[in-house]
Amino acid sequence: MAREIMDFLKPTPSKKFIDFTFGFGGHAKLLLSFGAKVTGIDRDKESFLYGKKLEKQNSRFKIIRAKFSDIYEQHEKSRLKNQNNGKELDSEHFMTLNPEKNLCTYTNANEIRNTKWSNKNYEADANKDMDKKTYFKEDFSKIISEADGILLDFGVSSEQIDNQEKGFSFTNEGPLKMQMGLNNVSAYDVVNLYDQHVLADIIYHYGDEVKSRQIASKIMEKRKEKKIETTKELSDIVNSCFRGFSKKPHSAKTFQAIRMFVNDEVNEIVKILHVLKSKMKAGAKLATITFHSGEDKIIKKEFKGCFLTTKPKFLQPSLEETLFNSRSRSAKLRLGAKKII
User: Fold this and answer.
1) Which of 73, 79, 163, 240 has its CA at 20 to 30 Å from residue 220's CA atom?
2) Is 160 annotated as a binding residue?
């Protein structure tokens, strides 16, 4: 739906844009081709390194590595500092004033997230990717407030799915990771260390999987024999809980659920929208692409009262596009312009 996005954003040499999900630059390069200035933001290390190469090639482009929650945290610290007469707040004070559970009103994700693991002393140091570099030097509020248009594509990139080492795919064997970058937990941790009822809740709430209890029970049974280490092992375990043929792979919902939990995708979306609603200038345009009904509900709710939406209320890929890229078939594109408040 690149054409629809460009028709809506109307990039020109005088305009500035933010691609909050840079990936490997598909949308950013299109914006640059119109002469616009573009800031790309992504949490993925490979995407960041690719962006650094593009940055050297084009002076109108800049790449920043960050999660949406990092941007939210900077925004909230600045807001609370202003409320506190310019005094810096320590992290304990910040978390007390801004408990994450107040943000996530769409699922019970935080109840799941706060549940103790079976191994209470375990910390996933071996799987941490918390190599935060210098992106907190960036003034995200300034970057957002100056933007004429912003793009958020919440799908997993084809490059991530096709990279076996990332562990996103249930069709290719790879290590159980599913990390988009800057994570403090991996799919391996979730599958091998979480209690059975927590696993079942994750699979049910994030994947809408009706057999979540049976799948969690089977995972517990298998991990008593050995650690579950690869995507194929997990996929085989999930598939063993089903009978008969299905157009959609049986393991798809479970893989989606674990990926969404590992990357805290619901909270990340809520947090970036919170900042955008506060900092985008009047008339600035926002384009969002979702691939999950729960994410789309969040976008739909957050657009109300803050953005003037286009008609129809959302767009979907054409048949021609889905034939060319089958992964786009569930995409929903919503377009809106920030209201004058």
Assistant:
1) 163
2) yes
